[in-house]
Structure formats: C-alpha cells, structure tokens
What does this fold into?
Amino acid sequence: MEVETDHGYLVVRSTPDPLGMMQAEVSQSLSDLGIGPQIYEVVQTSVSVWTVASRIFPGDSLHGRAISLDRLAPIFQRMRDQNSPSNQLPTLADWLHSRLSDENLSDLAPGRAQAPFDERRHAAAILEDLESGASNLLCHGDASSKNILLGPDGQLFLIDPRGVSGDVCYDVAVAAWKTAGEEKPSARAAELARLVGVDTERVQAWLVVADTARV
It folds into this structure.
C-alpha cells in the first residue's frame, strides 16, 4: 500500500508469513547497502509483520524483461562477502534441500514439471558441496526479475527477499537465469559472475541446483 506523507511517498507492507521478521532483517541489510528501499520502521504484531519503506521511483518491475548484466552487476558487487544480518535466519540450503527431497512438489512455474529423482539426487549432492563453502552470508534468495525494480537514474533495487542466509553466488545465478530473455542462462551466469567478481564454477553449480529445484 502506497501512502503520501510530508516526507514523500512511502510503501506500507503487511505479511502474515512466519518468516516476516527475517525478511525484514534482510531488507534492512539491502537498504543499508543502498540496493533496497530505505526501511523506516518494522512492526511485529501477533499475526503479522508490517514494514514501512521508501517508495522507489519510477519503481517499475522488470518482471519478464531481459536486463543488461552491466546493470545487474553493481547490486551483487555490494552484496559480496557481506555477513548475514542474523545467525538465526534459516538457510538457503535447507530450503533448497526441502524442494529437492519433496516427492510431490506443487510450487512449480507454469509449464514446468518436477525434476526426475536422479537429477534431484545429483543436485542434492552438489548442494552439499556448496554448503561446505561460504554459504551463510547475506543472500536475497529470490533475485528474479519480479523482485528487481527500476529506480532513479536507471539504478536497480532488490525487494521482497526470502529471509534466509546463504551465498550471493546463488543470487548471481538466479538473476542471470531469470533475466536472460533469449540468452543462454549458463553463459549469462558465467559473465555476471566475472563482472561481480565471484567464483564462476560456484555460480554455475548454484544454477544447476536452482534449476533442478524448480525455483
């Protein structure tokens, strides 16, 4: 909900999600880095979490649109090597493991079917290897084009984080994939990893896991 105040336009958002406070903590970290809306207040009630944030202008969602890697890279450069805002956050790896092990996964994009068991088992093994690296840092967890907004002077901002700790390499993989248009996701992921300055092989491994988990 958008509201007009003496200090400009603000966005008031309410969520009943049990992870609402954790999402707000990640939102605050993104705000502090200048890649998310400014967070003015977070209020937790018995049934919901309310967040008051600045309104991004023009604030157009880039959902379904191809995005230049040169424009994406600065977001993830700022996130690189940043600590998670809390050691109490659930992990990205646990969420992905739950999707890979779910034999009746129903949360699927239109036109996609659950990955075959052998593919999911292979992806789970890759995920275990990824967990042994730096995997409990600041992570958006859902850096798809629907969660990227166009701001002033063409700057891009991230909104609606998942509320997990993880690895920015996962965000790089997902952002490259979900903003690819007609380009090959693996090639975009490699190039974005180079621009951000993170390990290309790690990003490619996350891409396999994300695709197999049908995120």
